[in-house]
């Protein structure tokens, strides 16, 4: 038996999850695939990173910067790779073009 909310497994004889207060089920549905992110741009300055963050947060775009803090550890500017969820890529690219980032 499994909890459909927290996915915990229970022994026979249990019918409710004590943590979630949900009725247990025989089998769990397949877990959804993790979201896929694509590399959209490499940003080199903190000001540009802040601008992208503000624009994407306002538009509700799911993103992250890979290596955002790495330039502080190395003497050469490495840049931060802007990773955007695949389904938001077109909208994100439009925002970057309008801001002069692409």
Whole-number radius of gyration? 21 Å
Q: What is the percent of helical residues?
A: 10-25%
Number of helices: 2
Sketch the topology as an H/E string, one letter per element. EHEEH
Walk across the major sheet and give the strand order: 1-3-2
The CATH class label of the largest domain is: Alpha Beta
* Low-pLDDT runs: none
Beta-strand percentage range: 15-25%
Mean pLDDT: 89
Topology summary:
Blueprint: E1 37-43, H1 46-59, E2 63-66, E3 80-85, H2 89-98
Antiparallel strand pairs: 1-3, 2-3
Word description of this protein:
The chain has a three-stranded antiparallel β-sheet with strand order 1-3-2. The relative contact order is 0.18. It folds into two domains: 1-32, no CATH class; 37-98, Alpha-Beta Plaits. The protein is α+β, with helices and mostly antiparallel strands and 102 residues long. It contains two helices and three strands; from the N terminus they run E-H-E-E-H.
Could you provide a short overview of the structure?
The chain is built from two helices and three strands, in the order βαββα. With 102 residues, it is α+β, with helices and mostly antiparallel strands. The protein has a three-stranded antiparallel sheet with strand order 1-3-2.
């Amino acid at each position: 038996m499994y909890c459909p909310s927290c996915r915990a497994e229970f022994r026979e004889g249990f019918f409710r999850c004590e943590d979630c207060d949900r009725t247990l089920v025989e089998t769990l549905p397949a877990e959804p695939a993790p979201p896929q992110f694509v590399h959209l741009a490499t940003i080199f300055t903190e000001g540009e990173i802040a601008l992208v963050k503000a624009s994407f947060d306002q538009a509700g775009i799911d993103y992250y910067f890979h290596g955002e803090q790495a330039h502080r550890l190395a003497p050469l500017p490495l840049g931060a790779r802007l990773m955007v969820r695949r389904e938001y890529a077109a909208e994100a690219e439009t925002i970057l073009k309008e801001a002069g980032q692409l």
